[in-house]
Amino acid sequence: MPEEAYQPPQVWTWDPDKPQAFGNINRPTAGARFEKALPVGKHPLQLYSLGTPNGVKVTIMLEELLAKGHSGAEYDAWLINIGEGAQFSSGFVDANPNSKIPALVDRSGDSPVRVFESGAILLHLGEKFGEFIPPGDARAECLSWLFWQMGSTPLLGGGFGHFYAYAPVKIEYAIDRYTMEVKRQLDLLDKNLASRQYVCGDEYTIADMAIWPWFAGLARNLAYQAAEFLQVHTYANVNRWVEAVGERPAVVRGQMVNRPFGDKSRQLHERHDASDFELRTQDILDPDESTD
To answer: Which of 54, 80, 102, 289 has its CA 20 to 30 A from that of 149?
Structure first.
């Protein structure tokens, strides 16, 4: 049926046979779909995730904390393959009832504490270790940008990314609508960074860790292959910041964790020890397999 002829019914009903992106996992209901416990490693922090932008935020934070000498930030990172529906296991739903990665279980205290939603995990870790959240008035600025990311980039991913890259039909209205919003976000971020080294000023914070994976993906043409379409190269301050943050060793490591795609030398499916970056990347574990 042509786009302009569609009329919503009085009551929407789910049609599992209708073609849709990610139709193999998407349903209009929440909760576990099968029984499976989550693995638990030896470290205080147990992360269940995938190397998407939301997952990378947390692995960057953990690697930054370890780089600062916080041994209590040692963590086990377990791969949750969302394309295969692993986020719907009973164990994962116990860790995150919303069935989205990442999920963190903090086992450093008397009883396990679950933390879900990537922004909440960054805030939990920042407060726990007293790092990357500035004090005083600067804290409000940092948290404002953190929540800006949490509220804005769903329009980038679930809006622009979905309709530009994944929707079974190209809908001009939807692509125009979300392209305009992503361009506005890029312009806002570019203007903010014109007078600042980092998002909140001269100090690197959890706001940078939250925002960087999404906009670095656009700038590097890794997200939706849309850099040319969006003309991301014209946002000079964003690109300068993307490169500066991307050179941090902890950021380089954080992008490797729970990554099952791309260059095999940059894939560390699970992370249980700092030596894994040297010893357990996929080019070492599966040297005969071709790179995707």
So the answer is: 80
C-alpha span between 103 and 106 (Å, rounded): 10
**Contact indicator for 83, 25 with CB cutoff of 8 Å:** yes
Whether the full predicted model's pTM is greater than 0.85, yes or no, is: yes
Position 54 pLDDT exceeds 80: yes
What is the DSSP code (8-state) at residue 34?
B
115-149 pLDDT tens trace: 999 999 999 999 999 999 999 999 999 999 999 99
* Structural domains of the chain sorted by starting position, each given as residue range(s) with its CATH number in brackets: 137-253 (1.20.1050.10)
Q: Report the C-alpha gap between 143 and 152 in whole angstroms.
A: 14
User: Which three-class secondary structure state does DSSP give residue 45?
Assistant: strand
> For residues 98 and 212, what is the distance between their CA atoms, to the nearest angstrom?
24
